[in-house]
Amino acid sequence: MHELVVKYEGEEVLAGHYFRVLPPLVEVAPPGMAPCALGSLVQVLVNATGAPKREDILVTAYSPTGRPLDCPLTTIDGTNSATFKPDEPGEWRIEITYQGKQIQ
């Protein structure tokens, strides 16, 4: 366990500020995630709650060889999603960023 003391101009800030420390990358394998066939459409749902500008959200799929593939973000009936079609066999990695920073 660690304790973090926040100071402003040399004085300890006693309340009202909370920090959450996260690892730089998070690997998630949600329930129901299954392999897909080459060329099949993969849809990634994105919860954009709190994002003032949807255009600041970028979704990129990385092929098993590391090649990036931009995934356009669309909104249908208030649901944000991005799609791509895997064209290489193997494990793909999906990166979602907001204003250039990976979301957690």
Automatic annotation (TrEMBL):
Highest taxon above the source species: Eukaryota
Placement of Filamin repeats on the sequence: 26-104
Pfam families: Filamin
Database matches in PROSITE patterns: FILAMIN_REPEAT (PS50194)
InterPro entries reported for this sequence: Filamin/ABP280_repeat-like (IPR017868), Ig-like_fold (IPR013783), Ig_E-set (IPR014756)
Protein name: Uncharacterized protein LOC115879053
Naturally occurring in which organism (per UniProt): Sitophilus oryzae
